[in-house]
Amino acid sequence: MINERHDVDLSGLNTFGIGARCERMIEFTDSADLRDIFSRPDIAREHWDVLGGGSNILLTGDFHGTLLKHAGSQMTITSLDSHIAEVRVDAGVVWDDFVQWAVDHDFWGAENLSGIPGTVGAAPVQNIGAYGVEAKDIICSVEAYDVLTGKVTTLASAHCGFGYRDSIFKRMLKGRTIITAVNFALGLESSPRLDYGDLLTETESAGGATLSNIRAAVMSIRDRKLPDPHETGNAGSFFKNPVVTQTFAEKLKSDHPSIPLYPSGIDGTTKLAAGWLIDSCGWKGRSLGRAGVHPRQALVLVNLGGATGHDILTLARRIREDVHAAFGVDLEMEVNVW
Ligand code: FAD
Ligand code: NAP
User: What are 97-107's pLDDT values in tens digits?
Assistant: First the structure.
């Protein structure tokens, strides 16, 4: 199914709620549609990009060209034994609908990733993560349409270049592939991962480590701390948590004894909490014009109403300068600026 529209209002299609339009938007459901779309010379030549739920983008103006949007909604169990369920999910499925579906089927692995906005197709792009789990932990392969060859490639997880909020789809394959489906391996045996922050306590008070209690606990922690994009425009964490050398982290610790340091998972390096750095520079809860810093999580920049992408970028630049001056750390944007 191909559905083409022109001069589309994007303000309800990005969670920052930034007002902008795009010249052409095409919804599609499979790779055959993509082959038809890219056989049109006007589209093949023009600027194009892929839009999911718009929860990790910042629009800085109108989009000139074509935005492609996966509209598929299939979730299929492709193999099942006594330990593992393999599941194929269309890129267009809402991520949290997939998590709810997995929980309803008693499939383990996605529950800590409850409540993350966006689509399944975008999950491998930045290897979404929360509460000690990353999408790569449950992804076995990613199906992607290659615009250069016109073919669908199935990339095994080991070939997706997954890293901390990173993947090959943000790098080498950016502008070349469109993710059409993701294959997950989910566990059938109970395997709770509750060693992150208050998750254990919250799950216990919900009644113990069942899939639905863990999901409820994650949702409740998130609701208390993060702004609802329907009420306050935002794209979650604006910056990535910096990963620095062990030596640099030790120097920071001796200069700022209260700085939190976390294992990065990569030998010889340490993860810093960007939110703590921003808070320490006095930005938490502050604003610059129509762009603000969320009062409960300094890593989240918000649209206070009528902000443009440039208003948000101006605030981001001021924050980066202050963090650099105070700690010698360069914050890298997590959000994709369009
Ligand atoms: P979009 O914003 O539409 O797109 C993001 C990028 O992916 C773009 O570059 C786009 O071109 C590309 N893309 C999208 N779909 C495809 C596709 N099918 N093929 C190829 N490229 C594609 N992120 C986390 O990691 N953890 C969190 O806990 C988390 N919490 C959040 C909380 C809030 C309140 C908000 C607003 C955001 C949060 N995010 C979090 C960020 C965001 O939800 C994720 O990055 C999500 O995966 C983005 O999905 P999307 O469909 O909205 O992608
Ligand atoms: P938080 O729990 O206040 O923690 C602050 C930061 O410290 C987090 O960014 C987290 O890194 C790190 N951290 C805390 N405990 C950790 C531990 N036990 N092991 C390793 N790192 C730890 O963060 P929050 O804002 O409420 O978010 C909770 C979770 O949701 C986090 O995992 C966060 O990544 C995720 N989240 C992500 C986004 C996004 O847009 N990317 C938005 C909202 C929430 P990590 O970020 O690496 O986990």
Answer: 999 999 999 99
Cβ proximity of 123 and 136 under 8 Å: no
Tally Cβ neighbours within 10 Å of residue 285. 12
Q: How many helices (H) does the chain have, and how many strands (E)?
A: 8, 20
For residue 128, give the ligand 2 atom closest to its CA: 41
Task: Select which of 55, 157, 167, 237 is catalytic.
Answer: 237
Query: Which residue among the candidates 27, 111, 202, 334 is catalytic per the annotation?
Result: 334
Whole-angstrom distance, CA of residue 51 vs CA of residue 14: 9
**Atom number of ligand 1 nearest to Cα 91:** 18
Contact in structure between 268 and 246 (CB atoms under 8 Å): yes
Instruction: Give the residue among 215, 181, 201, 6 at the shortest CA–CA distance from 99.
Output: 215
At what angle are helices 95-104 and 211-225 packed, to 10 degrees? 150
Assess whether 237 carries a catalytic annotation.
Answer: yes
> Could you say which residues of the chain have pLDDT below 50?
none
The type of residue at 48 is W
What residue owns the CA closest to ligand 2's atom 36? 130
What are 266-310's pLDDT values in tens digits?
Answer: 899 999 999 999 999 999 999 999 999 999 999 999 999 999 999
Q: What is the pLDDT, as a whole number, of residue 44?
A: 84
Task: Tell me, yes or no, if 296 is annotated catalytic.
Answer: no
With a Cβ cut-off of 6 Å, ligand 2 is lined by: 129-131, 196-197, 225-226, 236-237, 241, 262, 273, 275, 297, 299, 334
Half-sphere exposure of 138 (CA within 13 A, CB side): 30
